[in-house]
Amino acid sequence: MDSPLIFQDFCLRKGSFQLKDISFSLHTREIFAILGKSGAGKTLLLESAAGFYSPHHGQILLYGHNIHSIPLAQRKIGFVYQDYALFPHMTAEKNIAYGLQMRHIPQKEQQYKVNEIAEILHIREILQQYPQTLSGGEKQRCALARALILRPSLLLMDEPFAALDPLTRKHLYAEITTIPERFDCSILFVTHDFQEAQQLAQRIGIIIAGRLTSIRKAEDLFSPCDDEDLNTFLTISPTH
Q1: pLDDT tens-digit readout, 24-77
Q2: What's 170-197 look like in SS3?
Q3: What is the domain partition of the chain in residue ranges?
Q4: Which residues of 182-198 are buried (b: 16+ CB within 10 A; e: fewer)?
Q5: DSSP-derived 3-state class of residue 74
Q6: In a 3-state reduction of DSSP, which class is residue 104?
Q7: The pLDDT of residue 236
Q8: CB of 218 within 8 A of CB of 30?
Q9: By C-alpha distance, which of 1, 58, 23, 31 is closest to 154?
Q10: Taking Cα atoms as reference points, which of 32, 23, 27 lies closest to residue 1?
Q11: CB 80 within 8 A of CB 143
Q12: In the chain, which residues have pLDDT < 70?
């Protein structure tokens, strides 16, 4: 089977910032983290993976096809934003069902799918609540349910746990690691948290100033190398 996602010599300029020669591939049912400081280009890379931008050079392949040749509705990509992007005027139930509604799925089927995903993510009791009444963890689960209900092949997550308390994070970490097998999808997420990257991902790509400096297994994250910038980046980790 083709790799879910491949960046091939991808270059993108956005204002004065540039992603430079990004090349990596995502394995089937893998959790892959992009780790970097604020301003390193993490979110821009993630949005590029969703096909939001056309490259100045190189390409992105989604299951072997140029992502920009695939209509948006057929890409089977789920995206969870850092601020969750829930609609404040809709209940959690309607937020979760939004993608199904846009695809004109019959109401009875929508209800079944919402209940199914709510059961999996333990949020059935909040379905009739509005986002402003939900805790951070509940909002995260709701946003996750909205993305997963469409059964994406690729799930993209932007700093997904940054606003959560440590205990809520710990519970969600355990659930995120079950998603690739349970939903038959791959996950690409970005973070500035070294510990989070190590706990969740099988492999970690390190981005410094728009350049993917290194890709390493999670257990080898702090292994020294010949790249002075990378060694400097790793030695400032609070978890090292």
Answers
A1: 999 999 999 999 999 999 999 999 999 999 999 999 999 999 999 999 889 999
A2: HHHHHHHCCHHHHHCCEEEEEECCHHHH
A3: 84-151
A4: ebebbbbbbbebbebbb
A5: helix
A6: coil
A7: 62
A8: no
A9: 31
A10: 27
A11: yes
A12: 1, 236-240
